[in-house]
Amino acid sequence: MRMTDRVAVVTGGGAGIGAALASALVDAGNRVVVVDLDGGAAQAVADRLGDRARALGGDVADDAVIAAAVDLAESTFGPLDVFVANAGTTAGMGLDSTDAAWSTALNVNVLAHVRAARLVIPRWLERGTPGYFLTTASAAGLLTQIGSATYSVSKHAAVGFAEWLSVTYGDRGVAVSCLCPMGVNTALLNSGFDSDREGASVAAAAVTSAGDVLEPDDVARTTLEAMEAERFLILPHPQVLTMYSQKSADYDRWIAGMRRYRSSLERSAPGHSTPDHSTLERSTLDSAADTRQG
């Protein structure tokens, strides 16, 4: 599918990867509805993008907000072509995470995708026109998230749901991609994991010491190029594929390496410092192709 002259909805579009994706889509000649829990942030992005963008505030874990976003896109710009399920949360952390935190993580990081797909995919099938569903998951959905059970579990589920969508509808005119970055310079990383919650500094360090922290605009450019090619797995950090291969090749060895890496992160957590690369390499499966997580 050519990513031009399309109508798109981007959730979590008020900042970070979502704002960058909305901007990249508009720059490529598409029209976009920017949705965010922070309605003011969504409006600011839409204002910056001009007459090819509109804004909507609301919680995209709510069916009514998803429906309102699609209705706004179609009433303003025409039939929807692309749905970007990008909104995310770092609610919860370890075993002490409350049921409410688990509910938030699963609702935003997984069920919001399910509810969006439930709405838009039948419309695309009925129209007989191609549609594109992009899920923003995380490298944590392929590997794990040291420090946060809620994030790791919900992102694994997001990847699993995207896989299921592609297997089920990929030969019926619905393209599906799953974006799995490691560290990206966003508020989700900088204020979500890096906070005073127990385990948060370890979770943040696990991301920032694993590899380069990319800028959202770089991730957006990589994503649009992959969508043009209709590639399922989008990896702005190419090393994630090596890590994932190592994990599947020897699961026990990979877990042992991750335990060592977690221990090194926990030892350096009080000062909010991160292990140097030699410590990181010693904690991984082998020093030539180390298994680091994001």
TrEMBL record:
Gene3D superfamilies named in the record: NAD(P)-binding Rossmann-like Domain
Pfam families given in the database record: adh_short
Top-level taxon: Bacteria
Ranges of Basic and acidic residues composition bias in the record: 274-284
Record keywords: Oxidoreductase
Polar residues bias locations: 285-294
InterPro entries per UniProt: NAD(P)-bd_dom_sf (IPR036291), Sc_DH/Rdtase_CS (IPR020904), SDR_fam (IPR002347)
Chain positions covered by the region annotation Disordered: 265-294
PANTHER family, sorted: 5-KETO-D-GLUCONATE 5-REDUCTASE, ALCOHOL DEHYDROGENASE, PUTATIVE (AFU_ORTHOLOGUE AFUA_3G03445)-RELATED
Family indicated by similarity: Belongs to the short-chain dehydrogenases/reductases (SDR) family.
Protein name: SDR family oxidoreductase
